[in-house]
Specification:
single chain; 6 helices; globular; alpha+beta; 305 residues; 23% strand
Length: 305
């Protein structure tokens, strides 16, 4: 997960500088959290649960926070705040800081013109996101995508989110769910495969040093086909989440936004939850993290939409 050299690494240096400026000016702010670790009894995976330290902030909306909720009535990406802008990545995509962040240096890969969050991703969406991931210094970064309100989408304007790894200090270099996903995929980059050992419909593909945007887009389409995620006549897709690192791409199909008091977006399928109440934390502990994901995901027994 190392960066591809000094030129690429300069992107994350720039992200850090812009982040410090925005935090210092008040244009961006970090939500304080208390980190808890909850081990799943069935799989042994240790999930990270970040609990909002100041629960009075729970109603505050953001451009695209780690939390889940209804989209605000305005589009914060058109126009975006200049203080949050890092750089243009391409003629089609720009890079912004997340205004209200939980993980420092959390950035958004945003289309420069409106595109629907629930539409099929173009190769350019993955190319811009892949550039940010490959530029990240060791141990790398994680990108995630929330397609549709039941998948935790906070904005209808298309955006990938990228956070540096590790997700919290003192944890492993990769996301907690990387272990079971990569073990199920086996050795070597390859084709899209189902993840039947997970208690929700999901498909994944291992990536390698030779992965490029065209290959990544082909794998993405294969994952959608495997998971039964088909484009509708309106050009939109059923709700789903994507988790992307330089090692793998993982798709999880969604049926609801919440499991009881726990709201879940794509980061849940990476192995971390952001919760705004002690009740939600206790729900994760009592039910188990994988049971939470199973409750918001689609069972394998259900026919594809």
């Amino acid at each position: 997960m190392a960066s591809r050299g000094g030129v690429a690494n300069s992107l994350w240096t720039e992200i850090g500088e812009r982040y410090d400026q925005a935090q210092g000016s008040g244009a961006a702010s970090t939500t304080p959290t208390e980190v808890q670790r909850v081990r799943d009894g069935d799989t042994g995976v240790e999930f990270i649960v970040q609990v909002a330290a100041n629960l009075q902030h729970k109603a505050r909306s953001s451009s695209a926070t780690l939390s889940v909720g209804r989209p605000p009535p305005h589009n914060p990406f058109l126009p975006y705040e200049e203080a949050l802008w890092v750089r243009h990545l391409s003629p089609t995509h720009t890079l912004l800081l997340n205004k209200f962040n939980v993980v420092p240096r959390h950035v958004l890969v945003v289309t420069r013109e409106f595109a629907p969050q629930s539409g099929l991703l173009a190769e350019a969406d993955l190319a811009a996101t892949w550039e940010v991931l490959q530029a990240a210094p060791s141990p790398g970064a994680l990108a995630f995508f929330n397609s549709g309100p039941d998948a935790g989408a906070s904005q209808p304007h298309r955006h990938f989110q990228v956070v540096p790894l590790p997700l919290v200090p003192g944890t492993g270099p990769g996301p907690p769910m990387a272990g079971p996903v990569l073990r199920a995929l086996g050795d070597g980059p390859g084709e899209a495969r189902p993840m039947p050992t997970l208690p929700f419909r999901s498909w994944a593909a291992r990536l390698g040093p030779g992965t490029n945007p065209p290959a990544l887009h082909r794998l993405y389409l294969d994952l959608l086909a495997g998971g039964g995620v088909r484009e509708g006549t309106d050009g939109l897709t059923p709700d789903h989440n994507l988790v992307l690192t330089t090692d793998y791409l993982h798709l999880a199909v969604r049926r609801r936004e919440r499991a009881g008091p726990v709201a879940c977006n794509a980061l849940g399928f990476a192995g971390t939850f952001f919760v705004k109440s002690r009740e939600a934390l206790e729900h994760v502990r009592r039910e188990g993290p994988m049971a939470v994901l199973a409750a918001v995901g689609v069972p394998w027994a259900d026919p594809p939409a």
